[in-house]
Amino acid sequence: MTAATQPHVPTLALTLGDVAGIGPEITARTLLAHDELRSICRPVVIGDADALRRAVTDVLGLDPAVVRTVGRPADATNDPGIIEVVQEGPSLGHVPYGELSPDAGDGAARFVMRACALARAGEVDGIVTAPLNKAAMHAGGHNWPGHTELLAHEFGVDNFSLVLSAGELYFFHLTTHVSLRDAISGIDAERTDNVLRLVGSFAGALGSPDEPIGVAGLNPHAGENRLFGDEDADVLEPAVQRARAAGVNAVGPLPADALIPQAVNGKWRFVVVCYHDQGHAPFKAVYGDDGVNITVGLPVVRVSVDHGTAFDIAGKGIAREASLVLAARRAAELAPGWHQVWETARTGSAS
């Protein structure tokens, strides 16, 4: 079925990530081995055709002719067995696998920026990102802590959150790609208020405005009456009270070692964690390839894999595409209603 004859499905920009990593091969596998995605979205790669052709040939053992360039997403036919690419920048086919490359880091950032420009122009309905390498991106001249901050900059938003999701479970993060010392200082009243409002808006947009939101304490035992620090009592508890007064059903702060297992077992659907590893470590330990990374607070849906570039196995043909397939599926599911998520996140009320 061609794009002209199939029912309307969201067009997704799949950014290729760092071409020295596993991005090209998992992208190729996702688009060549999972034809079912074509019925729910029109995936168009934003990246480098030569890097994809190399992965198709050397890693998958297929004909490089399956990779075709298109001028713009609207030109994509969405034919199964074909990878359609909007070329961004010069060829990166020379970049070796498994080595940190400024060229690859520059390309990975530019792929994301091009996808954001296409989204702002209304040419794509969502963005799905393969992993980039932060050190390579910095070496390439783009000094962002990670994907999330780059995306926020490109869309001009200040209130956003990295959200890990598996099924109907969502872990929002107060801080992410900073040192633990900076994370502690970064958890202030303004940031906590903003994220709790964001979670409440997101829950409302998903049809669960009264769903309880578990807020993890920063310190062991959520500070235990200031025995283990003052941040829980001085910052988190007042923020929870303000959120509740505003109609957001926040609860806490609660000891993280109790809250997170309860969430995994179904007691909590929405959880707020304080720093990167407080959320990422248990989430990845439990869900692995069954999890994705969603950025809430952007005007279009963005979903990513929840793993890195895996330089150590790049080009060996053993990388699994499961998380990228799931990311594309989740983006396709969320894209049609994302305008409501964006409006409620932006204004605090459904439109």
Distance between the termini: 35 Å
CATH top level of the largest domain is Alpha Beta
Number of strands: 12
The tally of structural domains comes to: 2
- Mean pLDDT comes to 92
Stretches where pLDDT is under 50 for at least 5 consecutive residues are 1-5
What descriptors fit this protein?
12 helices; alpha/beta; 4-hydroxythreonine-4-phosphate dehydrogenase PdxA; 2 domains; NAD; disordered N terminus; Isopropylmalate Dehydrogenase; EC 1.1.1.262; PdxA_fam; 351 residues; metal-binding; 16% strand; twelve-stranded mixed beta sheet
Topology (elements, then pairings):
Elements: E1 11-15, H1 23-33, E2 42-47, H2 49-59, E3 67-69, E4 83-87, H3 102-120, E5 126-129, H4 134-139, H5 147-155, E6 161-166, E7 169-173, H6 180-186, H7 189-205, E8 213-216, H8 231-245, E9 250-254, H9 256-264, E10 270-273, H10 276-287, E11 292-296, E12 301-305, H11 322-334, H12 338-347
Parallel strand pairs: 1-2, 1-5, 2-4, 3-4, 5-12, 7-10, 8-9, 8-10
Antiparallel strand pairs: 6-7, 6-11, 11-12
Helix pairs in contact: 1-2, 3-5, 7-8, 7-12
InterPro entries: PdxA_fam
GO molecular function: 4-hydroxythreonine-4-phosphate dehydrogenase activity
Family: Belongs to the PdxA family. PdxA2 subfamily.
Q: Would you kindly provide a written description of the structure presented here, covering whatever features stand out?
A:
This protein has 351 residues and is an alpha/beta fold. It has 2 domains: 1-157 and 297-336, Isopropylmalate Dehydrogenase; 161-290, Isopropylmalate Dehydrogenase (3-Layer(aba) Sandwich), CATH 3.40.718.10. 40% of the residues lie in helices and 16% in strands. It contains 12 helices and 12 strands. The chain has helices at 23-33, 49-59, 102-120, 134-139, 147-155, 180-186, 189-205, 231-245, 256-264, 276-287, 322-334, 338-347, and strands spanning 11-15, 42-47, 67-69, 83-87, 126-129, 161-166, 169-173, 213-216, 250-254, 270-273, 292-296, 301-305. A 12-stranded mixed sheet has the order 3-4-2-1-5-12-11-6-7-10-8-9, with helices on both faces.
